[in-house]
Amino acid sequence: MSLKSLTYTSLARLDLDADDLENIHRSARDSNVIEGITGLLIFNGTHFLQIVEGAPHAIDDLVERLRRDPRHSAIEIREEREIEERCFPDWSMELVRVSGSYLEAKETISDRLPEAIAQPVRERLIRMTEAISGTVSL
Ligand SMILES: Cc1cc2nc3c(=O)[nH]c(=O)nc-3n(C[C@H](O)[C@H](O)[C@H](O)COP(=O)(O)O)c2cc1C
């Protein structure tokens, strides 16, 4: 079966609170189980960085819904590619809350990424997490 991975960043609605985040996470997980989508959602208080992986049509449908969702804006697709296998097979959507400070954010995400993840993917994710939380450009 063909699989696609898509990574985007977005800007959270300014008044998004902990309950909103919890709602996003819970409903994302529930619906991703049904849709066969797995991935990782990183939130640093102002920005989201999300990787979603699954059947191409499921990912395309999700991106349409994400674009209509007023809880975030300025969605920018950072990477979209066909993959052989999933990087996050056990995560229907893992939420990782990181600091707005890039050094702390880097440490948190490094600790939380699965051991089995390929080195280039790990490095890219750490770099992008640093970027949403600080000084490095994407
Ligand atoms: C940052 C963020 C991440 C989200 N991640 C997912 C996700 O992984 N899966 C999902 O089904 N919905 C996710 N959502 C919710 C969708 O944008 C959308 O609200 C939901 O799929 C229901 O869409 P509908 O009301 O158009 O049916 C996310 C929303 C936000 C703001």
From TrEMBL:
It comes from the Bacteria. Residues 3-94 form the BLUF domain. Gene3D superfamilies: 3.30.70.100. InterPro entries: Acylphosphatase-like_dom_sf, BLUF_domain. One of its GO terms (molecular function) is blue light photoreceptor activity. This is BLUF domain-containing protein. It comes from Sphingomonas lutea.
